[in-house]
Amino acid sequence: MKISRQKKINKILNFYINNFGFHSPFQILIDGTYCYAALKNQHNIQEVLPKYFLSELKLLTTPCVVIETENLGPKVTGAAIILKKFAVHKCIHGANYVPGSKCIKSMIKELNKNRYVIATQDRELQDYIRNQAIGVPLLYLHKKTPVLENPSNATVEHTKLHKTQRFQLNPNEVNLLTQLKVKSGIQQDENSASFRKKRKKGGPNPLSCKKKKKVTDCKKIIKNNSENKIKKNRKRKRVRIPDHVKQELLQSK
Ligand SMILES: [Zn+2]
User: Cα(95) to centroid of ligand 1, in Å?
Assistant: First the structure.
């Protein structure tokens, strides 16, 4: 078997192992249609499936499936013979046999609590498993090759929801967590007197009550500032008289 195909099968199996408690040996619940296709395509179920799953398997069927296949007549005698080799798991129908697909639907109720992998070529049953069942791996034959189908959307969505709920705390757990936080000093007790202590009454915030300066005062300030600036900018220029001019002036006196 190709490595990529084996990886895919392992991934699917691990999904069911981690989310629905599947484990080895996996229980394969087989109906008459799968046995009929296996015989037609020379697919030896007992030899091929353990290699495909790389695991020990329990190959199973139900009383209703065996009776239904037997009743279909000589055309499916070979399939009935194959079915009878498998262990028969008791169903709820007792002596009131029902069609095989109906029996299998009853076996996978309540989130497939007995963890069956369903091996079937029955299109109607396949659609039921894809659209309405949760946590039910589907196995079918493509010619002589077994195919384990990816988990259905309904199954994946159920798993996501279940995971979210699993990590959500109920009100009692929230209370307990708060008490532990208070005990360890991480959180202050909301009911304690110190937590409820009112703020002291103080004066108003001085910043928010700052008086506005009168417009006339502002004008004065602006004027003074501008005058000061002008004064600062006004530098006294010293006029230097050259020496020969000074001498001439002295002589002229
Ligand atoms: Zn039954």
Answer: 9
Strands of the sheet containing 138-142, edge to edge, are 87-88, 57-61, 26-30, 116-119, 138-142, 145-148
In this structure, is the dihedral angle defined by the CA atoms of residues 70, 75, 77 and 83, taken in order, positive or negative? negative
Q: How confident is the model at residue 1 (pLDDT cuts 50, 70, 90)?
A: low
pLDDT tens-digit readout, 56-73: 999 999 999 999 999 999
Structural domains of the chain, with CATH: 3-160 (3.40.50.1010)
141 CA from centroid of ligand 1 (Å): 23
- Tokens 């799953």 label which residue? 53
Query: What was the pLDDT predicted at 208?
Result: 66
Q: Give residue 46 CA to ligand 1 midpoint distance, Å.
A: 23
- pTM above the 0.70 mark? no
Instruction: Give me ligand 1 centre to Cα 18, in Å.
Output: 29
- Give residue 203's identity as a one-letter amino acid code: G
Query: Ligand 1: distance of its center to the CA of 214 in Å?
Result: 98
Under 8 Å CB-to-CB from 235, ≥6 apart: which residues?
A: none
Alpha carbon of 31 to ligand 1 centroid (Å): 11
Q: Which has the closest alpha carbon to 126: 147, 145, 110, 111?
A: 147
Going from the Cα of 96 to the center of ligand 1, the distance in angstroms, rounded, reads 8
